[in-house]
Specification:
Blueprint (H helix, E strand, L loop, with lengths): L14 H21 L7 E8 L3 H12 L2 E9 L2 E14 L2 E9 L10 E8 L8 H12 L7 E6 L12 E6 L8 E5 L3 H4 L3
Parallel strand pairs: 1-4, 5-8
Antiparallel strand pairs: 1-5, 2-3, 3-4, 6-7, 7-8
GO cellular component, one term: cytosol
Protein name: Metalloprotein
Pfam family, one: YecM
């Protein structure tokens, strides 16, 4: 529960930020319930923040760097995406999570400048291809058959990454109701960037 985060350095001088984080966790729980998954059964390898203005991204990066260090700074789909390793992990859905993703804005406008998604690790099976993994996850959970959910499949390419990094992103169709997203991928982000 996020009450463990009350004294986290990220929120120590920012009670509004803590309330935003608590609301993010509540919305992710709601989405997970609709997806019929238990977050406790999968590793949450990182959390992500989305902002619309470069200045807001710079401010968020400054705040994150007061309690962590840059693990990675790559260009993905034409924009900088920072991965920050927190010195003290956050507690989210009963797990400790020490990586925060902060993409700098590009052209897309988000409804909210806020915490936006989590990523879960659902590993490849032995000798499973990317296409087989996507097919297995889709047939196992049938998210694309739930009419109130959007499902997006992608495989971002980042220079220097040697492992495939397919992603299945699931969100509510009605973003005004709940703007959050749960993404699944086969490797922990630290393995992808070879940390």
């Amino acid at each position: 529960m996020t009450t463990f985060n009350v004294h986290h350095p990220l929120f120590a001088t920012n009670p509004t930020g803590l309330q935003e984080f608590i609301e993010f966790e509540r919305k992710i729980d709601e989405l997970a319930a609709q997806m019929r998954i238990r977050l406790s059964e999968y590793e949450i390898d990182h959390l992500a923040i989305r902002v619309n203005q470069r200045k807001d991204a710079e401010d968020r990066l400054t705040a994150l760097l007061k309690c962590g260090t840059i693990l990675s700074d790559n260009i993905v789909n034409g924009r900088n995406i920072y991965l920050i390793k927190l010195n003290e992990p956050l507690i989210f859905a009963g797990q400790t999570v020490d990586i925060v993703e902060l993409p700098f804005p590009k052209n897309k406008k988000y409804l909210y400048d806020s915490w936006e998604h989590i990523e879960l690790v659902m590993p490849f099976l032995y000798k499973e291809s990317t296409n087989e993994w996507v097919e297995r996850i889709n047939s196992l959970f049938l998210w694309n058959r739930l009419t109130d959910l959007n499902v997006k499949i992608s495989e971002p390419k980042v220079e220097g990454e040697r492992l495939p990094n397919p992603s299945i992103a699931v969100s509510f169709c009605d973003e005004r109701r709940n703007h959050t997203c749960i993404k699944v991928h086969p490797y922990n982000i630290k393995k992808i960037i070879e940390v």
